Amino acid sequence: MATFDETVDEFLETYWRHHPVEATHAGVHRYDGDLPDTGPGAAREWREAVDRFTERFEAFDPAELDHDARLDRRWALAVLEKLRIDAEMRPWERAPRHYLDTLGNGLHDLLLGDRARRDRFEALLARLDAVPEFLSTAESTLDPPSVPPVWVDAGLRTTRTLRQFVDDGIPEAAGRVPDLESDIVAASERAADAITAFEAFLHSVEARADGDFAVGRDRFDRLLRDYHLLEMDADDLHEFGREWVDRYEREMETIADGIDPGSDWVTVLERIKRDHPAAEDLRQAYEDETMLAREHCVEHDLITIPDGEEVSIEWTPSYMRDAYPIAKPWTTAPFEEGLAGKWYVTGVDPTEDDEARAEHLRDHSWAWIRAIAQHEMYPGHHLHMAVHKQVATPLRKQFTSPIFVEGWGLYTEELFYETGLLDEPELRLMQLRNGLWRAVRIVVDTGLHTREMTAEEATDLLVDRARLERRWAETEVQRYTTRPTYPSSYRIGLTQLMDLRETYREQRGEAYDRKEFHDELMAYSILPVGMIADELL
């Protein structure tokens, strides 16, 4: 019988072989030139692998495993249940974006990080060459009557942005490897033609698409219970979200009235958004606020910062602008060396009209930049991942809990409010608005997947309550329909972390130390907060 560590290694290798794009994203580069096998045979093989590894992990007696292995066994079984539910939804038959996102990520991730490496461009060429067959298989595998209409629309939007990336972004990037440039350009032209053909296929699907995107109450509850390890069902979560929407709105109205008596929070927030850096100063503004957040962590002794971590702020390359219209943080892959992160800032497009440029700058308000700097960088996702890379087991490097990942991001905003960097009313209002958005997500998430809420109703709710622009809200809803429970993880995670901290504080009494709590929390890398609470308390 294989040892526990050998079983983990076999599971990860099997996962990467079936999901080569995920392997690239994680920093495992032996599959960089591959796209995943698709079709019924590959899907059946993967489902059998999930069942086989579930049996193998269940066979280990926790009492005979060491501490880390016991945690990893529990987490592996949770992850396998999530993968099983994903397979039950048959995305290869029902979700056009299942193929398009795989392509986009598979090509795009090879251009991140050390973007001058020749082997990455050789892999890029191999993946581009595989695009026509990959999309041809997608056409023969998708079952039009089972495709939800909203997923057809999402697929059509994605084909346009993906084709633009292949038409413009890849040839631009290929200039860094002159001896491969002509081959890459030719392959990108063939790939673009295949994407155009797939777009025509999706138009033919529109009239026949009649599927349901909802994961259903049973699977939704299984995700909450068996993957996120929560003691709540869909109804509990829905009410939790509604309560937080009301709480956020009440506090925001109070703060807005204090800033401008008689004004509502929407009016005041729009005024706050008009205070922003000049277009040419955006990159420097993000750098200044990022360093301010780091200094705040050090000054208030909030958390241990690993030696060697660093962040650089760069303008977003042109081929990434469509995918990341505001900014994009990038942390080094968990299986690669180094603790350096980047933050790409998308500047104003000089070809847009005056109103579009003005709206873009409003999205980069000072209040937004300060609130997001600690969420994304210090002590948020960048620092979290830097620590994670140093302490995580291989299993935890590949599979992370969104409850902890996204909950920690929101927690850092609350932490900076408590320690003074976000305590100005204008900054607090922006922070709460971001929290409100996450609370409305819960109502939408549970509504879409367990309460027969339509995509149109979900969009209206995001526009009316979270005050998102309609186009932005439509894009959000399309993503929520494919990721049940993930949109809820932000506010759930924040609540769990705040509750855990309070119980930890009560247990420690006068010996409580905030930095010690954060460091102990980080030592578990990115497991579900409920698992960490069982250990930490």
3D structure, described in words:
This protein is mainly α. The chain folds into two domains: 4-206, no CATH class; 226-536, no CATH class. Helix content is 67%, strand content 3%. It contains 24 helices and three strands. It has helices at residues 4-18, 20-26, 40-58, 67-88, 91-94, 96-108, 118-141, 149-174, 178-206, 217-227, 234-259, 265-273, 282-299, 354-363, 366-376, 381-391, 394-398, 402-418, 425-450, 455-465, 470-480, 489-508, 514-522, 529-536, and strands at 310-315, 327-331, 340-345. A three-stranded mixed sheet has the order 1-3-2, covered by helices on one side. α7 (118-141) packs parallel to α9 (178-206). It is globular and about 60 Å long. The two termini are 34 Å apart.
Domain count, please report it.
Answer: 2
Q: What do the pLDDT scores average to?
A: 94
Number of helices: 24
The largest sheet, given as strand count, sense and whether it forms a barrel, is: 3 strands, mixed
Q: Which stretches of 5+ consecutive residues score pLDDT under 50?
A: none
- Summarize the helix and strand pattern as letters: HHHHHHHHHHHHHEEEHHHHHHHHHHH
Q: Which structural category fits the helices and strands?
A: mainly alpha
Widest sheet, order of strands: 1-3-2
- What does the overall shape look like? globular
The CA-CA distance between the termini, in Å, is 34 Å
InterPro entries: DUF885 (IPR010281)
Protein name: DUF885 family protein
Organism: Halomarina oriensis
